[in-house]
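Sequence in, structure out. Go.
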Amino acid sequence: MATPQEKLAESLQALHELQARGITAIRSRDLSRTNRQRLLRNGFLRDVIKGWYIASRPDEAPGDSTAWYASFWDFCASYLAARFGEAWCLSPEQSLSLHAGNRSVPTQLVVRTPRGDNKPTPLPHKTSLVDVRHAMPPDGELVVRDGLRLFSVAAALAAVSEQYFRRAATDVRAAMASVRDASEVLAVLLAGSRSTIAGRLAGAFRNAGHARIADDILRTMQAAGHDVRESDPFENRPGIVLPVRAVSPYVSRLRLMWDTMRAPVLKVFPAPPGPANPAAYLRTVDEVFVNDAYHSLSIEGYRVSPQLIERVRSGAWNPDGDPQDRENRDALAARGYYDAFSAVRTSLDRVLHGENPGAVARTDHGDWYRRLFGPSVTAGILGAADLAGYRNGPVYIRRSMFVPPPRDAVRDCMPVLFELLEAETEPAVRVVLGHFVFVYIHPYMDGNGRMGRFLMNVMLAAGGYPWTIIPVERRNEYMAALESASVQQDIRPFAAFIGDLASSALGGAPAPAVPGMRG
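Output:
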């Protein structure tokens, strides 16, 4: 007779076969009742709605939203296809967001379909889907991306309201950057005789710095007998002009975020103190190492003590002679943090002696990362390939509605981040947006938070601000501020949070306490 473990293994094999076929949204009929119940009981399967499930991890705490947010878009694509066939598409607003590289999970996903009942379908973690009864756009105005049926960029621009240009300016502008010329938009405008919308889009493209497209829209519509009056739907003009047909919508979005977030950062962040004495600054950094390591590692869930960190720093950590040191995940993380901190210290020295902090971060951040995880590779917990560079797969942030860019976009975005840091003249902007944009891109499978805080402190040093520790006791506030910036595009809470900590450090406030250390 098979043991319970063997039976569970059999059910897991059935789940694995579904996942190997790319099935994320699992229907009751996809698994036998026995396998389904066994997987649900052991935490490997989770209910979404009646008859539909997603895979999960048994170690996830009750109420953990990570599995749902990670599965959201694939689930919705499968569920909607099963329910409506091809007679559905996402709203023009949501279509524009996805075209712009914004894959944050919406609180309510609006779907258009002739078979809609205009009623919301509750989904996990206070999300929902509402299918609005609406005629479908022509086939030529629809595109399919990752199983999601979307309005084309041109069709979506013509369908959204004037208010949407102001409410979601970053998404609209990033999507507009993918329009090659006026012909893409004109095909939609002429087919629907949309003279008012033509004037709005002409004004939008002129606002974005693309006068040629704006003029072509006006002249063509007028030649076709339409009375078109240009109007600008945006509230402000951008500080940058994105190239037509930008390489990646994620790059366009990143540049636009940087441009729109600069002013809010400068309003709340303390003024830079000015150049610091390099030798004195580095002595202070050495003094805060234990404190910094404890809080930064604790934020990521490692259980480290000041005693362990001191053992690592003093050289008493002995992975060759002590099996516990070699195998202990927390000890390996502490050792990696010490090695990375030492590499960051070298970068600080270069910045304090006047080198461009963005250029220093560009050349040095790979070494910080290799040092951070080198001990885990040596111990055999990670493979050497894990140190090769940026991630080669998707990554998700625990409990976050924000979905980081796909792996191919990472390679487009990271050079742009360092380009923006190198060109930025305001130290406060480098500090806040350097950290935020790094974790927004999430270039690595692990270590993004620690790397982002290292980058933040290198940027702080460039402005003369002291090394600043984010206390583990304020982790929830820290994560909520990052979530607000990532999902709502509101950088103010994060800028105020970091600015408050930097102000305290500037004023000589005591460093956050570490259990077991004497003040």
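Check: The chain is about 55% helix and 5% strand. The radius of gyration is 26 Å.
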